[in-house]
Write a structure and sequence with these properties.
Layout lengths: L1 E6 L4 H12 L3 E7 L15 E4 L3 H13 L3 E4 L6 H11 L6 E4 L5 H13 L5 E8 L9 H16 L18 E3 L2 E7 L5 E9 L2 E9 L6 H10 L5 E4 L8
Parallel strand pairs: 1-2, 1-3, 3-4, 4-5, 5-11, 6-8
Antiparallel strand pairs: 6-9, 7-8, 9-10
The structure holds NADPH dihydro-nicotinamide-adenine-dinucleotide phosphate and ligand LZUJQKHR.
The ligand O=C(O)C1=N[C@H](C(=O)O)C[C@H](O)C1 binds next to α5.
Subcellular location: Cytoplasm
Function: Catalyzes the conversion of 4-hydroxy-tetrahydrodipicolinate (HTPA) to tetrahydrodipicolinate.
InterPro entries: DapB_C, DapB_N, DapB_N_CS, DHDPR_bac, NAD(P)-bd_dom_sf
Length: 246
């Protein structure tokens, strides 16, 4: 049995993870922790993998504490940038058996949408991203949208494409956040869960790739997949696509 502890266990995602682990025949729930709880309770004696869904401001410190305790970590919390990822890589050098896996998005539909969009990116002059979420979300734009923009930008650079055309002369914020040259727009609307549209255009044509997570259960197959991989590839891994043989 894989012994799984959950950090952020009472949150919207954490509570779904607790239920998913309890329903998985090859897993057992170890500790459930939240804000204010002492992560020193987690050790190799009681936990094989920790799943971390907390808040962007706390996630790095949580991950560093868990690495110090030599347990594998699966992270869904957003807010990661290259500097934070490098801090994790450095921390892992003195814990060579530990794996840290970070996924901007665990929904298979969204991971596939991003993958297909990256494949298509070099064929389109223009690209923009619209992400749409529930209004209780604390960060904008979404971690997924930032990651998708980075993937599109990498594909465009590799293909030697020029900057995206945009003759906007005045902008008080309506054009969204620019991530590596890609405009990213965020919508917050009651009734939504997590949705992303990747728009690509040429003269006279448009391709829209859209993924919809209507319910948080959509993230659970990806979370369980990551738990089952934990420890098999020590070091830092980012993105569920790495486990999907795409
Ligand atoms: N990768 C993916 O597929 C997905 C990622 N997410 C991301 O996951 C994160 C959590 O989202 P969501 O569950 O909706 O948020 P919630 O606010 O519902 O849950 C966050 C939980 O973390 C707890 N918490 C706060 N601070 C700490 C801390 N320092 N240590 C441990 N726990 C803490 C909160 O406790 P309290 O309420 O008491 O403060 C709460 O229980 C977000 O960054 C979100 O963007 C969400 C969905 C999918
Ligand atoms: O807060 C959420 O809900 C979500 N957060 C992640 C993100 O910011 O990309 C993943 C998903 O979009 C849901």
């Amino acid at each position: 049995m894989i012994r799984v502890s959950v950090v952020g266990a009472q949150g919207r995602m954490g509570s779904h993870v607790v239920a998913a682990v309890n329903s998985a025949s090859d897993m057992e729930l170890a500790l459930t922790l939240d804000a204010g709880d002492d992560l020193n309770q987690v050790s190799r004696e009681n936990t094989d993998v920790v799943v971390e869904f907390s808040v962007p401001s706390a996630s790095l410190d949580n991950v560093l504490a868990l690495i110090r305790h030599d347990v594998n970590v699966v992270v869904g919390t957003t807010g990661w940038n290259e500097e934070k990822l490098e801090t994790v890589r450095q921390a892992l050098t003195s814990h060579p058996d530990v794996s840290v896996f970070i996924a901007p998005n665990f929904a298979l539909s969204t991971v596939l949408a991003e993958h297909f969009a990256a494949q298509a990116a070099r064929y389109f002059e223009s690209a923009e991203i619209i992400e749409m979420h529930h209004p209780d979300k604390v960060d904008a734009p979404s971690g997924t949208a930032i990651h998708t923009a980075q993937k599109l930008a990498t594909a465009r650079r590799a293909a030697g494409m020029p900057a995206i055309p945009d003759n906007t002369q005045t902008d008080a914020g309506s054009r969204g956040q620019v991530v590596e040259g890609i405009h990213v727009h965020a919508v917050r609307l009651r009734g939504l869960n997590a949705h992303e549209e990747i728009l690509m255009g040429n003269a006279g044509e448009q391709l829209i790739i859209r993924a919809d997570s209507f319910d948080r259960t959509s993230f659970m197959p990806g979370v369980l997949l990551a738990i089952r991989h934990a420890g098999k590839t020590p070091g830092l891994t980012v993105g569920l696509d790495t486990y999907m043989d795409l």
